[in-house]
Design goal:
With 144 residues, this protein is of the alpha+beta class. The protein is built from three helices and seven strands; from the N terminus they run αβαββββαββ. β4 and β5 form a beta hairpin. 7% of the residues are buried.
């Protein structure tokens, strides 16, 4: 589990290290307008801007949870990522996790909406499994 968290931390650090931080004055108005059309509250809350791979990335906090909107240079939404509570995961996803391990623990959950309004979910889950093997290394019956 520590390896997974370490890998995720390095991936996030890598992502942030390639991002170019921007001042609001460096962001074109059509990009700001697109963000405000989707999240009107951004008029009153702080927005952190960065640019990566030619796209503008707005990071905001909505209801105490981080959200990110990626907008291309023409003002079109690329994707929206929102950190969500695990209770908002679809029932089918929770059922699958429960089947893997009834004592699973969601470390983090994201709801990702792409430019075609298709929603997907990305989760990091802690699952504990016990495996039993015989003296030759073969799994014992009933072992997960």
């Amino acid at each position: 589990m520590r390896k997974i968290i370490a890998i995720l931390a390095f991936v996030l650090l890598g992502t942030f290290s390639f991002a170019q931080q921007l001042q609001p004055s460096q962001v074109p108005q059509n990009i700001k307008d697109r963000l405000q059309a989707k999240f009107p509250q951004t008029i009153e809350i702080p927005v952190s801007w960065s640019k990566e791979k030619g796209n503008y990335k707005a990071t905001i906090t909505i209801m105490d949870a981080p959200a990110t909107m990626v907008i291309d240079s023409l003002g079109r939404t690329v994707r929206i990522e929102r950190k969500i509570h695990e209770s908002y995961l679809p029932k089918k996803a929770k059922d699958k996790l429960f089947k893997l391990d009834p004592k699973y623990e969601v470390v983090s959950a994201l709801q990702i909406t792409d430019n075609k309004e298709k929603v997907t979910y990305q989760t990091v889950v802690k699952i504990s499994s016990n495996f039993s093997f015989d003296s030759n290394g073969a799994p014992l019956p009933g072992s997960k």
